Protein 1
Amino acid sequence: MISNPMRSVLRDCKRATLITDITRKFDSVLVANRGEIACRIIRSVRAMGMRSIAVYSEADAGAPHVTLADRSVCIGAGSASESYLSIARVLESARQSSADAVHPGYGFLAENATFATACEDADIVFIGPSPHAISAMGNKAEAKRLMRDADVACVPGYDGDDQSDAIMAARAAEIGFPIMIKAAAGGGGRGMRLVEQSNEMSSALRIARSEAINAFGSNELILEKAIRGARHVEIQIVADNAGHTVHLGERDCSVQRRHQKLIEEAPCPVLTADLREQMGAAAVRAARAIGYSGVGTVEFLLDQDGSFYFLEMNTRLQVEHPVTEMVTGLDLVELQIRVARGEALGLKQQEIALDGHAIEARLYTEDPSRDFMPATGTITRWHIGGSDNVRIDSGIREGQTITPFYDALAAKVIAHGETRDIARRRLVRALRDTTIFGLRSNRAFLIQCLENRHFASGKATTAFVDDLLRETGLDTPGQPLAAIAAALLFRLDCELAYARGPGVATNLRNWSSGIRLTSHYSLEIDAAKYSPTVSPLGPDRSLVVLDGNPIEIGIESLNTESVVAHVADLRIQLRFQQSDQHELWLALPDHDCRIVRLRENRSDSGDAIASGLVRAPMHGVVQEVVVAAGDTVAPGQPLLVLEAMKMQQQILAPVAAIVMEIHTRPGQQVVSGDLLITLGANTGEGGEETR
């Protein structure tokens, strides 16, 4: 075990256990990334006394990592292919800034062997493994072959060279459904599709190939047996250039949506000491098989019977690395840099143990109510809660515009505790104290996950999110929320009227000698519509009637950012922001919502469907138009494919119809609300009836 004194030594960068045999010194590091990971790397670089250089796209000119670094260089337009993915532009930025080394972070060029080689050729230290190791693990098919040779068990599947639809379908039938289609060249959930039955193969292959080629430049796929009820468990390894390799324990990453991780923790709640030793030894074997150096992660599927299977090796820093740092006391970025400088790793396996428990929640700008669709727009308010036992890794700021060009990750919130339950409760508290307005986020859904009894008891598997949504759905307060919103809007309307009009004594406000004054509201909350009426009962209390149900609500302690609402015996602290007279953002402890005060004759989604207008549900780039003018489509049939934040979303026909006109083309950038396709009524008799 690592003793507390040793942990303090490690944190203070007085590395008694690291042999300082430096073979290649450097004192400036260019961070070839953006967002929270760029900020996190810059902090470690600066703590080690080195100079930090940030790169940024035109879309990220106002991002926090730009100002955090000692120097920053613009490398191109907003598109990742013209900026963060451009090897030539990153290397030119390194030359301009006199950078000695490049840290790629995760994503973008982090696992690009060509980039690592180009750095070497330019006499710039690549802070990561060798190009050989990246190449060996960069292709899932090749990686599985290498792991089988290293006696590491793999998930049954197909990783052959014949990529034709016919062969893939035949091999899928042999493996047995359900199966997973995966991009051979990448990760992060891109190019990945779950196929339940054979008739879904053709569409899934097409989408997976498209995502894979766009994200990784390769459309090669592999097939794997889908293992139900498994856990996603990964082992953190670190190795020096002499081949000394140790593992730093495991992380459980089972809570996922769309095959992308949402919540990670260390240690895994169900791992025994014996199983930890077995999985750790397999991970070390995997690393040694390819001559690995630096920090890396070997991912496994852990079956319910204790069997585990190799999934992939990520030859980079993981998004979820903070939970390992919090339970080991080690700075993984610092370890990466020290290995890149040629220092020998003096850590012994028997010295490493996990202290307490850490849980990380990924805060995304996405809408859980719309199948976790990425959200774009301007962050109008940003505040994140925290404490001594909570770590915040963030890469956004208030006033920043979230574009469709990049991943939707806004921040990571990580809590540590002596026990798992303490860590979980601290994380929930921090998320409840967090505010993000201006666009939708998954904050409330994360709280729902963390408070679910299956997660709280440590029983969550990779099926957790799907099971949660199927069994309980999303937590939506519904009518009580609509009543509170109406009472708050009424109070805000009154405060505005008082400010604009002549002075009125407080005790006379909302008083009438005749019939009770009543205000009518038409609200849209999370796509649901409400028509409450509000009548004042005094300066701070109102009677809200919704669907014939009277609810008495008190509104007090009103300021520009928060308010206290009294409903029955409940006292609820609310945060709000009124962007204009027709829009209100409201955050309850466990729920966020955008409230729209509907104007008369305002068209809604139902009107749009009735008119045959198919609009973009988000900002993005049109990847493919599946239909043509004159085609007849059925409800749920794909019309086009829209890509945003590296994920592809099929836009489906809302009703049976005829395609009248297509208003877009592949490669076109669209914003939310743009008209994409006009549909006409299908009479079902071969005739056309336009609306």
Note: The longest helix spans residues 479-500.
Protein 2
Amino acid sequence: MSDECPTTGFDHAQQNRWPYVHQFLCDKLELGEQDAFDAEFLARFSQEIDSSLEKSKPSESTRKRRKSLFQHLQRTIEHRFKGSTLRQFGSSESGLSLSHGDLDLCLISNTEKPKKILRSLSKTLRNQDMEDIQVIASAKVPIIKFRDERTKIPVDISINNTLALHNTNLLKRYGELDSRIKQCILAIKYWASQRDVCNAAEGTFSSYAWTLIMLQSLQTTTPPVAPNIQSGEERTLLEVDGIEYDLTMSDNPNLLLKEKNSQSVGELIVHFFKQMVLNRPWDNHVIAVRNGKPISRQSKAWKYAKPHASDAVLMGGKTRLGLHSFPVEDPFDHAHDLSRVLRPEGALDIQEEMFRFWIGLKEGKGWEELCEFKHPERRVEIVEKDLFEDLRKLSKEDIGKKVAESESNISELEQRIEALNQERQNNIKISQALRGIFEETSDLRNEHRQIVRGLKPRQQRIQELTQNRDAINQRIGIPLYRIREMLVDVYQNLTGDVDMFQVPSLEREEQQFSWFFELQAMHNAALEADSAHKELTALLKEQKSAVKELKISERKQSEVKAEILKSEPLLADIRTEFSEAKQHDKNANSLKKVIQERRKELRRERREKGRIDAWIRISSNAGANNRPRKGRSKRGKKTGQADWKPKFNKPKIEDVKQRAESGNSLSLMDIDVLLQSGGVSSIQNSKPSQKSKRRADRKKKQNLNLSARRGERSQSKKGRKD
């Protein structure tokens, strides 16, 4: 008996994967009423969300790594592509990123075609030791995906995706408008990521789409939490790639809200799922943030095309989901539906997770339980490693050994790279020299080639003529001159005066006529043989002359090659042939790949050396900070007292007055000293001493040089000039 459901057609595995969707399609799913949730539950729910998001936010070290990686890529790529600009966009720029978020970058370049840029960019990234490089040139916006080898941060670089910069600016404004907006967006992205419905590459919504869906929900609360920032009578139009876009954004979005919404983050999340599950806005509407509320499918002309998600799943194979299944309009590109990436399985996964969340919420489950990781086996824990973890336990001797080893490896790699470069340059020089010989002798070689081309067909014709002539001569056996003599004799016998007493018989006369005709045929054949002989003689003469010219050409080539070889000692023992030049080209290319690998090793070794040097500086500075100052002994430690503490001397009244009269800023200690000496009124009557003047002049001279420099070592004041 088949395990397929007669109503939905789902088999046992599909029913287990989408149990709530299956019940919904069978009209058996109990979604509950739109009752208000308990205030205590909502307060606790909000606290759980805040606590969870605090843990999932990018740490300070993560932000620093992202910033450092962006700056590195910016320097590298902008140097490679002159006149281009690398910009950051997406969640990391808008402040709506989670700890595991990627780095979205946009390369703006008008000098080259996007596909050509991607090919060059992939080579540049490989030279920078990037991992998992994927080039997606067929997308609407060409993109390259990779992962940083050191930080493991995923990076997406799109080409000329300028519209995304405006999208990022829009979301950034929404996030800065109200802290609850940012929290709600991060919450829904966290939930979608945990439940594996936030991956456009696998057929679900992107994080950008979830952001817009949440913004739409916040625009439909009573009163609204998020205004329509894109509203306004004055419109800002901009042409991008030949298409005009409306990029209007309000300068004062706070003024757009007439009433203040006081709902908590927990209440807003509940409102979101209630709207998605019970009201199902995408059945008849399109999510449109720029409108401030969903718009009808009819007005947008985005009808739900078949097949539906459940039907497409049953159809199997690579059946695509019908267009506009869960329509989400891009705020600026109104023709772009963000649901076009959905696959049938992904669409059902989204519905299943929404049903699951709502039913769990009705059962009183907490945030962490509702956002439980769907596939624990896929979880990749990103552990922030201590850069100096392996060095902290090592002694100074071991550190010294590592430094020496690293320096040795660097020196060895540098020498190896230099030797490989030299070998590669030699191959290039040999190839160039060989090609130079070919260029210098090109005219001679063309002449030589033409002579050779004529030799073969001429020789073939000579053989044909020889065979034809010899065959004719062998067949007739009588030379031409003798045939002619015989023809004359026979002709005279046949046409001469008849002697009445010697009249030939009829039989003899017939023999003579027959012989005459035979001689004529032999004469024609002999003429053909003679003509072949004459042509043969001429061809033999031409062939002899061509061979002579060939030898002269070869001698000239040898002389030119010898002259070139005198100035090219590298070619002394090398065959001057095209195959040899090609072989040296192959050698040069192979050496280039080896050099690239060695350079990667060198970069890694230098980074390791820099890490060790940094640890030496840090550890030495830490030790220096714990040592007493030079020239001062460490004070004795009494019972119940701490070690020596620095002494803070009050500034002199003359210095304070001098700073006040010159208009410089005063510290709290300066003001205290000034008040104790008679207040501000004493400044005008006081005159700076000569010593303070000299000190002020000295400080002015010092301030002229604002560059960072190492301070002087402590010296005795004895003999120092003021």
Note: The CA atoms of residues 421 and 595 lie 7 Å apart.
Protein 3
Amino acid sequence: MHSHRVSVALSTLLALSSIPLLAKTPATLAPAAPATACPTIPMAAPDAGAVRTPSLADAWGGPRRADAATLSDRVVSYSIDAELDPAKHTLRGKQQLTWRNRSAQPVCSVYVHLYLNAFEGPGSTFMTEQRASEQGFRSNVATRDGEYGYIRLDKVAQGGQPAKWTFVQPDNGPKTDRSVVRIDLPQPVAPGATTTLDIDFFDQLPRVVARTGYYGSFHLVAQWFPKIGVLELPGERGATAPRWNAHEFHLHSEFFADFGSYDVRITVPKDYTVGGTGQLTGKPAERGGKVTHRYVQHDVHDFAWTADKRYAKPLVKTWNGPLGPVEVKVLYTPEYESNAEPVLQATIDSLDYFSKTLGAYPYKTATAVVPPYGADEAGGMEYPTFFTADSTKMVEAGSIGRWMLDFVTVHEFGHGYFYGILASNEFEEPMLDEGMNEYWDQRMMSARGQHLALERPWTRWFNIGFRIPPFQMERLGASLADPADPLGRNSWTRLSSGSYGTVYSRTATTMRQIEALVGTPAMERAMKLYYERWKFRHPSLADLRDTLAEGTGKPAIVNAAFDAYIYGTGRTDDRVESLSSNEVLPLPGYYEYQGRQVLVGSKAIDKAIEKHRKAWKDKHPDAKAGKGAFPYRTVVVVRRDAAKPPQVLRIRFADGSHRDFPVTSQESWQRIVVTTRAKAVSAELDPDHLVWMDANKLNDSRMLEAQPAASRRWFGDFAALLQSFFALLATA
């Protein structure tokens, strides 16, 4: 751009910055709260996360009983009418939001997420953090004018009375961020009472980015409606007093919401195919070239949908689960027809695996979307009963593309449990959804025998290539050698995007280590307990920790792992520092013989050693390699760095035997000394591969050349040797 044009552009921008954004700023915007006696309810801290205090037993309504009338303690309900203009990529909505005050005090203001405002321009928290991370607005395409997005409140009323609202920044982000709004209520909500807000809103969808938007006729409509924050009570996720949990929409954050009910009516042109959260209720109603689809779903905490005129006929199959039939549906565009069947099968396999290993799938639908070409950033995202998969041209079994297609499907379905049913706070403790889901997904991929194949068609022609087991792959991406942030830290207070990314792999590796140390049956019992205790509630890290400690019966192992890797930045790098194995030979000095001290000198010792070697060889002419006249003293030094999980040191000997020794010292080193019949040939830490968090497995072993072993009767031989010394001296 020429300098004159730059100057003009900057002048124009500065001029525009001084003009109020009347088109997006409602007339009712005002900071004043109603004059009431309501006590102030604070917001959750900007650095919240890594909860250490377990929730009370009755938090979030307590564990869900089998005879409960509802699956969840329904706090909120949404009734929404929405109409999509696919040409302009806009949506007009009318919403009735009914919310219950669970606290013991009146509430005069509520906090509501307006997630789409993360994409309205450079002043949002999302884009500010994106610039700081030196990333573009989108990972793979340039942004053009008109491809941003926002949500606008046009009306908010309580019982017919207009409500005032103002934008807030709970995490101290830029004052220009508009992803959270405080609504001041004309009438307080009494303890235990409910209130209904009537809200009119308008969405301009962005070009698909970060879980929502459009590409051509394809629309993924997510985080699209005004969504109330969560009022947490004392004893819930570390709260000591009532607090509102409603964070800004950060670059790496996701979501947190109360369970409730959704009744959503979606109007689109009649040539558009629609899919969404929950069950399609009744026959779609057609009028004036448009069709209205009604979706209803209870006991979920989010709602998303898709619409596209290019969708092929959906692939549909019924899966018969423990709680009845489930309709499994795959939506796809023609260019990815080959993806539909693998995605369908991976979804059904996931329904089987998660239902058996955690708990029965509780819903009646599961819908997967294969994003069309060019809409990559719509792929790999989860919502209750509804998720987007990957898309690829490589669907051949064993290919990298097929592995990714299957894994992304398993992963996003898995979020139906880790985030959907076990509804952790993704803002503050992303480990509980992304990390725990990654762990359970890779268990499933391991159970399927599905390893990542690092090969291409031409490499297979030459029989070149290898496969990486799922958890070995996780280790490679876990930054075990130098973790920048504790796993328990919130999603946005992190060194880098790469550090956030290790939430997936490092959590999976940590959990795999715990499983290896406590045993697979114990870990599976503990995870089923975690699901049963915390389903349809909002567990914290402390709740997971205590449940695993209880369920495995190995609290020391669980607590040590949490302290080192989840609440801290502990690393593990144990190594075999040295290995020696030498003959135990008689030494000169005074010995007691027949009641007196006898000096045995060096020459006598050397002569006796030589004599004993010859006698032993004469006595064992056919001795195999690994046998000898004297025992061996083996010394191994293990160095221990940072976090020090219990390990095993295995020493192998020349006669083919081995012995295992516990490595449990919390000092920086441990010395193991053993005297045996045979010379040691190697020493190896963690021979059974239980310590997954070890940053460098290449320094876990040392080897010596094999040498002849000692006699199996060395104790007797050695005693006879000493007696011969004394006999020699006595007759001298």
Note: The first strand starts at residue 76 and ends at 85.
Protein 4
Amino acid sequence: MIKMSKMHKRLCAKSAAMLALSAALPIGSAYADEVAADTTPAASQLETVTVTAQRRKENIRDVPVSVSLLRDEKLDVLVSSGQDIRVLAGKVPSLNVESSNGRTFPRFYIRGYGNTDFNIFASQPVSLIYDDVVQENPILKGYPIFDVAGVEVLRGPQGTLFGRNTPAGVVKFESVKPKLDKVEGYYNVSAATHNTTNFDGAVNVPLSKEWALRFSTLRQHRDDYVDNTFTGQKDALDGYNEHAERVQLLYAPNTTFNALFNVHQRNTTGSARVFYANMIKQGTNDIVDGFDPNKSFTNAPNFQHLRTNGASARLSWDLDGVKLYSITGFEQVGSYVSHGDIDGGTPTGPGFIPFQVETAGGITSVKQYSQEFRAESKNAGPLNWQAGVYYFNEDANGFTDNFDTNTHVLTTHLASRQKNSAWATFGSVNYAVNDDFMLRAGLRYTKDKKDFNTVEATNIVQVNPTSADVSKAKVNWDLSGTYKYNKDVNFYARIATGFRAPSIAPASTSVPVTVADAETITSYEAGIKADLFNRRARVAFSVYDYQVKNQQLTVVGGTSNITRLINAAKTNGRGAELELEGFVTPSLKMSLGGSYNFTEIKDPSLSIATCAQTRCTVTDPLTTGNRAIIDGNPLPQAPKWTITATGRYSIPMENGEFFVFTDWAYRSKINFFLYEATEFTGKPMVEGGLRVGYTWDAGKYEVAAFGRNITDTQRITGAIDFNNRTGFINEPRQFGVQFKGNF
């Protein structure tokens, strides 16, 4: 039984009232392989789409999972200004994405549940899957968005079908696939503030009746625009260069077999995250008077380099009564380094800086292999099933360095290696009790093993132990039911479990290797999905309640530049999600999404170090040793409320269409750390975008002017607590122009 707070009940009541008004609003429907319409919609009808949330193509309305989709214009608008994957934050209910490493190390949160760990070996409870291949290492999760058919966000545990490390959910990307029928493609070019340029494009080439190739590319650039007042150098920081390519080769000799091969790479250079020393006014969460985001005070080199590549082979056989799949994946980080001034200032300021910190972290190599074999039935009767086996192997080598801030000479070097292997077997069953009621059940057994060792420790006397070996086996399951109230309205309920494998953090001079035990989750969810008013509107509403046992948490900072892992006895979460979409008029299409996410750490025995007491205002109760008791605190980076809205108004013209598109996202306040302090609480934030353009020749060409963060909202989005009130901020306002063409 789902227990709800009074606020949660009020939210449900308000949301139920909103359902009655849904003719004028929308739901982010979900996507599929290639979003396909069952029927050609009328001019003011929403198309029917299919999703792969259950590893099969299904109508979004029939899937007993809270799932959202970003595709087409909604997705194109977000990436038009050259922004990275963090732009997805808040664009669907209950999704947050942030990073203290800029473009190269995103951290994902669903329903407030995520991980703030910035260790290069960190694991996350949100899994990122690109073209059916899991991107396990956090450095792999930042692959840019281009030539993508859709982004599917699955909320809640997905362990049965997608494996371990998915207790919070899955973010699933699917590239546009090659086609055998004709030569086609697109090109997209934009220019914006700070000499930001973005080009992406693709070409599809049939090579024969059986072979087709699709080549996709991305080029992004932004000039440095932040001055370094310490060196006197103008336009010294916060620029980047990014390019990525993907080549796909399709082989389809007949109707029973096809093979899709994928090779991709990414190369990124530019600034590391720009930190600003003492930018937070003491006793408040305000930015200090006179703060200028275009001026920094760094006395250390600031740069990032990243190179990744990968390949996959997806094979399928369509046989009598069964379909067989083989998915083989290889991902590699060839090199990665991020070097920066962590304190964000100089010995002379701004403000008081207890000690200087210049560090670098990186990866010398990561090699990841994965293999899945899966079979699914094609029965015409009420019973269908799918089953498979999965294998995963990763070998990761990383390092952390410290430097003398006066000479920039290396002072300490710590290199570590982690080997991770896992295998699983899984299955699920769908049974149609009658025409209106469908039952689903799934089961997965996983065995996970990690070996961690210190490879090199230069000028570091580590606290023992310096290595760790952990192994864990776990069974996860889910049970759900979907009731078809009528041809347009479905109700569903779901119980699911999930687990995240144990995590390991390196030893330091004051902390030994720390091991966080496996965490588990039990989640309850119920909802309604409906097409309304002859498919002029669509609505989805869900409520959920979950409990995490032994949640892995990352303690960062305090009074020194160290991290360690801990487990909380329990974490509770509950909330609700609402998505509406529809045509207000034939010319006006709108959408609205919102979520309420309540999280609470439940462990009276858990206390952690805080900032030096003179540097921030801790609001948690303290132990006699001035450690903060975090029992009852929300999870970090977990806003209680999020709201997203879009609107598109079009005016038909002789040979085309004039349009105005706007999108807005709101999140309530957040905590940056496990403990609560006035200075380290992020204020509520609203960001909006605007796009005005003209499309012609049946949508073949489009020209537009756009703006991102058009209100020039400036908010602290994260902080460093161990030294001073160092923070970093959201992306600046941008204006630009864009041209798109299809051929």
Note: The two ends are 54 Å apart (CA to CA).
